[in-house]
Amino acid sequence: MTIDGTTSVPANTGRPGWVNRAILIAVGAVALIIAYFVLAAFLPRWWSIRVGNFSDQAFSKGIFLGLVLGIACTLVPLLLFFAAWSVRRKRGGKVSAIIALVIAVVVAIPNLLTLTIVLGSNNAAHAGERTLDTEAPGFRGATALGAVIAVVIFALLVFLIVRARRSRTQKRLAGSADAPAV
Fold it and tell me: What is the pLDDT of residue 129?
C-alpha cells in the first residue's frame, strides 16, 4: 500500500518468472560443470600426494592407512544412511535424515577420492595412480579390502538390529494377546 491508500503495482521486468529461473539454473549448471573439470584435474593428484606423504613409501603404513580409511569411510556412511532411513518418518526425522546424509557423504570423501584415482581415466587419475604406486604401496588394495570388511560388518549389524526389533515387536504382541480383557 502506498500513502494515499492505493496498492502499488510491481514493476514488470519484461521477462516471465520461469525465464529468470531457467537462467539461474543454467548459470548454476555451467558453474558446476566448470567446478567439476577444475576439481577432476586437481583432487586425484592432491589426494595421492597426501596419502603418499603419510605412508612415506612404506608398505605397512600404506596398508594400515588403506584399511583404516576403507573401514571407517565405508562403515560410518553406511551406518549414517541406515540411521537416516530409520528416522525419516519420525517427527523431525526429515531434518535429521538430511543431516545424517550430508555427514555420510562428507565422511565418505576419502573413499570417493581413492575411487576417482582407481576408476578415473584422465591425466590426474593416472598421475594419482603412479603416486600411490610409488609413495603409498598397498594403499589401494587395502582400501578395497577395508571397504569389503566394512560392508560385512554393516550387514551383520543391520541383521542384529532388525532381528532385535522383530523380537521386541513379537514379545509386545504376545504380551498384549496374553493380557486379560477388562
Answer: 92
Task: Please report the pLDDT score of residue 8 as a whole number.
Answer: 64
Residues 6+ positions from 93 with CB-CB distance below 8 Å: 87
Task: State mean pLDDT over 113-142.
Answer: 91
For the chain, give the DSSP string: --TTSPPPPPPP-SS-HHHHHHHHHHHHHHHHHHHHHHHHHHHHHHHHHHHHHHHTT-HHHHHHHHHHHHHHHHHHHHHHHHHHHHHTTSTTHHHHHHHHHHHHHHHTHHHHHHHHHHH--SHHHHHHHHHHHHHSTTHHHHHHHHHHHHHHHHHHHHHHHHHHHHHHHHHHHHHHHHSPP-
Cα–Cα distance, 88 to 108 (Å, whole number)? 21
CB 52 within 8 A of CB 135: yes
Question: pLDDT by residue (tens digit) across 72-104?
Answer: 999 999 999 998 988 878 887 788 889 999 999
Q: How many CA atoms lie within 13 A of 42 on its CB side?
A: 6
Distance of CA 4 to the CA centre of its chain: 56
CA–CA gap between residue 21 and residue 2 (Å, rounded): 29
Residue 4 pLDDT exceeds 80:
no
pTM: 0.73
For residue 177, count other CB atoms closer than 10 A to its CB: 7
